Sequence to fold (425 residues):
Amino acid sequence: MKFTLFSFLFIFCHLTYAQTYEQQLPPENPSIIYRPSEIPDRIILSISDPGSKSKTVTWRTKRTSVPGKLEISILTSEAEFYKKNKEYTAISQDHLTFSGDSVTYHKVELNDLLPGQVYAYRVGNEKYWSEWIDLKHADQTDQAPWQLLYMGDAQNDLHSTWSRVIRAAAMAAPEAELILHAGDLINHSLNDYEWAEWFEAGGHLFAQTPQLATPGNHEYVKNSQGIKTEISPLWNLQFNYPKNGLAELPDQNFWFDYKNVRFLFLDSNTDIENQAKWLEEVLASNTQTWTIAVFHHPVLSGAEDRQNDGVLRHWKPILDRYQVDLVLQGHDHMYGRGQNANSGLGLWNENSGTTYVVAVSGRKMYELGDQSWMQVKAQDTPTYQILTIHRSHMNYQSFTWDGQINDSFRLEKETGKANKLIELR
Ligand SMILES: [Fe+2]
Fold:
């Protein structure tokens, strides 16, 4: 093989890039406080029970041998409601961050919450406590319409610009009961400063509304060749989801039911064929009215030259066969929505009615492709999505980050048939 100057430069640049890829240290002049202290930070609420009967709270302190505590009270109008509280002791796990800080992650599962009850809780120990944080524990048998938020890749400039997107979403849907994140929450999986920015942007919202996230490619650690080797150790420390997926993908592959919806979370970075078997089993036993799948890599790309054949070949036929209502995805840094997901590939089940969406909430953008599966598409458009779930229909609205309607439709359940999609734009 002829070794040219070009090939030398290519290999040199590639190695330099790969070696520095994960070594992104905090900026010289950080915009936020990110180092751990005795005061709890990065408080996040998740659902770790498939029936959504319990909730799990996770937080961080600097490394400590003092056990973390969680106090919870029923919220009343009394000024000192918090005095009648119940205390839990956390399960704690130490961790060394990439930038060298020793931290402890604390976790409490609240498994005796009463349906329909509003609580307030705080976390900490001894002298150091968080503020009291509201926690509504919905009655899972409640048949009233309810809302959730869906966010595509946040990933970049989390403090400077994404913070206002997540705030705008929360203000537009203050009663949203869940927030779904379709992967690439941050840009570098080990960079503790980026995670600090993600948590700072979400603030109290992350502590009072369950956050359900699927890993993107940027949540994976890469080796010196730039190949994904393992999920960031911070993933499992921060997120606690039902342990009902593949055992080797904890908190990455799981399902849970919330009211009238079955949610399926898959890790599209790895183990595609084994997750396909899991997907089929979970869908075969599903009796919920609605089914929503969330994963990072789209079954059909919305940008140029980014097709993921594994997901397309192994997951799409199953999603269609079981008439999954919505598939919420990220990765392509554009907006696309469609049901025409055949696109000449011979994989379309015309009776499925499955609606596929790709969205991005952060500022990084890719060029929009002209793939025919997209009935609605937008380039250079960060968005957030509000879904309102009714018993026999679902309203979907996508907003630009300045609050304008980007997309809007209704799905109606038709007994024995595919969903009817009504355009509302
Ligand atoms: Fe991304």
